[in-house]
Amino acid sequence: MPQSATGLQPNPYRRLFTHPGTRAFTLGNLIARLPMGMFSVSAVVMIAGSRGSYALAGAVTATGLAATALIAPWVARLIDRHGQARVAVPATLCAALGGLALILCLHYDAPDWTLFAAYAATATTPNIGGMSRARWAHLLKGDPDALHTANSFEQAADELCFMLGPVLAAFLCGTFFPEAGTLVGGVLLLTGMLLFTAQRVTEPPVAPRTKARSPLRSPGMPSLLAAFLATGAVFGAMEVVTIAFADAQGHRTAAGVLLGLQAAGSCAAGLLFGTLKLTTPAAHRLPWCIAAMAALLTLPLLAATATSSLFALAPALLLAGMATAPTMVTGMALIQHRTPADRLNEGMTLAVTALLGGIAGGSALGGWTVEHGSVTAGYGVPVAAAGAALLIAVGRVRAVEPLP
User: Relative to the CA of 133, which of 40, 52, 148, 301 has its CA 20 to 30 Å away?
Assistant: First the structure.
């Protein structure tokens, strides 16, 4: 990697939270973000337990993912036009009611189609990570070093919540009752969103309406979103293949620990990355970050092929996760640069949508490879997806300069 860092900043994270209101909105952000890793696991447990069909459970959650891809950018556009508090609270309430409707449909044995409709309603959940990043961008305007630290913190928070969310959901559903994960997730989402939106002093003002083109038409955005799509395929394939690998070893429950180690590696690397003082543009750093991710992803492939041991796979996954956060932080920085100011939430939500689409595709491809090839060959899918992301980044993303 080129010398993009000249040293460590003194206590950069402490400096972030000296701004008034940042601690309060961050607390709300974390509370509301935790359920993002809970809902799909809780829905699968509920539906499979009530209807006895994992196929139905998978179809319902896939429908929710498709609905999110369609609705989330629209919700983000409304937030850009009318402000976070005015849109996020009613949108969150609608999503929580969708989760409650799913519980009631299962409890009263409603027809299967009602499950799809109820879970699709949860797609109105605002992109809390995007709104939080928008607040940091507003507060830290003109301070790129501090904004880099804030983006790194947000990525570490993503990793932490998606690491803890499924564990909490599984615990609640298994210890109490199948609906407990969805109920607690809904309460956390509403509580966190209300706390987050109550911090009006840090809310970015609504940008004046302009005739700015859609973020999709901004220079370099289509290729950047394509790189996010390929990166999402890395995550989706890695999850499915790791579960299959652990299952093949007779320790399926260990899959959660293994995936947690990967997320922990990414979280730690993200926090460290945020302390670096960067000197090169994000467009130049992104190919190097993706190249590092592709290189480290060969470690799980080698561990699975050479040893077929969970003990060898565990440290390989921990190391493999360490290039994920720097890649995502750098990619999100480019999204912010290349999105018009009055469409910022929409641009970041499009990036998340591309990731979700890649996760869905990577899961399907990883599952197909495991079923028709071998479990160890499945670890080649994330490597190939990272290679595709690298080709896109080198060929197209780097070629376009960010918006001023």
Answer: 40
Which pair of tokens denotes residue 97?
């009611």
Equal CATH topology for 11-206 and 210-404: yes
Interval 369-388: pLDDT, tens = 887 888 888 899 999 999 99
Domains of the chain, by residue range, sit at 11-206, 210-404
Q: Is residue 7 helix, strand or coil?
A: strand
How far, in Å, CA of 26 to CA of 168, rounded? 20
Write the CB contacts of 238 (distance below 8 Å, at least 6 apart in sequence).
259, 262, 297, 300, 320, 362, 366, 379, 382
CA distance readout (Å), 119 to 40, 95, 101, 116, 217: 10, 9, 8, 5, 31
CATH of 210-404, one of 2.120.10.30, 3.90.226.10, 1.20.1250.20, 3.40.190.290: 1.20.1250.20
**193-206 burial code (b ≥16 CB/10 A, e <16):** bbbbbebeebbbee
